[in-house]
Amino acid sequence: MPDIVLTNVTKKWDRFYAVDNLNLVIDDNAFVTLLGPSGCGKTTTLRMIAGLETPTSGRITIGGTTVFDSEAGINVPANKRRVGFLFQNYALWPNMTVYKNIAFGLSNIKEDLPVIDDGALAAAGQLRVLENLPDMLKIIEESKDKSGKIDADKAALHLIDGFEISAGSAKDLLNLRIHESLEPNSVAAAKADKLRAELEAARKKHAASGHVLNERFELVKDGKVLTKTRKLSAEEIDLKVRKVARIVKIGMFMDRYPSELSGGQQQRVAIARTLAPEPSVLFMDEPLSNLDAKLRLEMRSELQRLHIDTGSTFIYVTHDQMEAMTLASKICLINNGVLQQYAAPLDVYNKPVNLFAADFVGSPAINFIQASGTGQNGASTALSVLDGIKAVFTPNGAEIEKAPEVIQAPDKSNKDVVFRPNIPNVEYTDEAARVAEDAEYILGVRPEYIRIDGKSGIEGEIYSSMPTGMETTVRIRVGNHLLTGVVFGGVLYRIGQRVRVSFETDGIILFDGKGGGMIAQGSLSI
Ligand code: ATP
Q: Of all protein residues, whose CA lies closest to atom 28 belonging to ligand 1?
């Protein structure tokens, strides 16, 4: 499925801009997270692409097809956009088994589909198994319980998963009882011959009406796959259910009811249900927020794998920057309905286009230090920081990405505000400590770049120290200012301990204090 393109998409409620002139290209197969604080317009953006919300203006194309165009009057409904949804409240049907929960949606699909020879499809599946008789017998052997009796359900499940066949085919094969026969090879060979004859007869029958069967057992005439408006057959539904169950590893729960599953297992069923119709785009709105921290971590890794396995495009809404960082191939960072930065997670982290992006991504948060310029010497800028300390900022020459241009609408009131980050200070409340409106420059220093074990640097003292085992987060007091550093390992610092602070990196970011945009990245010598 090719790109999703948003061109000048705006959503207004009365005079309020929920999404303002958004331009975005989401590549095929991307995993894009829509990230931003509560109320910034993430869900609205997702819903507009999905067709659940009508934009006020703009154009959206999915795979080259225009699904919305305010000027041309095009608005394709959600159910015609071949997209899947996974929301926070995924509500499985409690009175249906896991299997039915997944299959139910599939049985309602009625659309233009390839005409398939179901019988031939099933016969080919069974033949595949019989042609690998040793593997089949091994699977059955491994499905014995403690008393040595074969667990038929387990054997069926392993055949279904191992050979990608339907439940009906697995049952037929087990009913042959090859594993109990004294002559397993000849029983298997006899059945295989029968299946080959069936396949041959099917091919002949179709050839008589001018059709050939392709490798998916679809009918092809003159090089074109024959289609008709129809429902999925039981065999197709079963194969699809089994396929997604295999991907999210819930094959063993198929006959259980949702109340008999843990939260994480239910979530996996919900994901399977969404994936079953093979949507080319999968929309997820904070799907993991109901899960506990450990499970969330586990599901994140599952989602990452799922993205690769399905080859679908994933669009994922979250306000959790860690989730966005770890999952996405690209982060779309929004504030106040306005796109701030659209880049790979590490680019947003290392090269934030403005103060908002720098502040929103990273935990612990980036340190902001107000600075005034006292002179320009070639490429370097002499600065005064932290109440009069002299420092020199030298750019590293890296290319700077410009923040996306925002075309301000004339009646807009909520988009003109420049983000003012918080600057921690031992004396002020959070509000009072916001960066001064007239700061000339603001330096952004990631906590991992702060060194406190050197012999030279700014004098400071340990304000607090929080070892987690793997790393220690320290807050250092410099005058009345507080800087946050992260030191690898479980280092113990004494509160009040005198330290020297230095910045050993060329990854410090110089921002324009007024507009908030990034000016350069470089090093800071004191
Ligand atoms: P959250 O993370 O809290 O879910 P979000 O970024 O997804 O937030 P949206 O749900 O997209 O935010 O909402 C964007 C803005 O649009 C919010 O300020 C919200 O109050 C407003 N909004 C959403 N729906 C409507 C509506 N139907 N009528 C008026 N305003 C709305």
A: 13
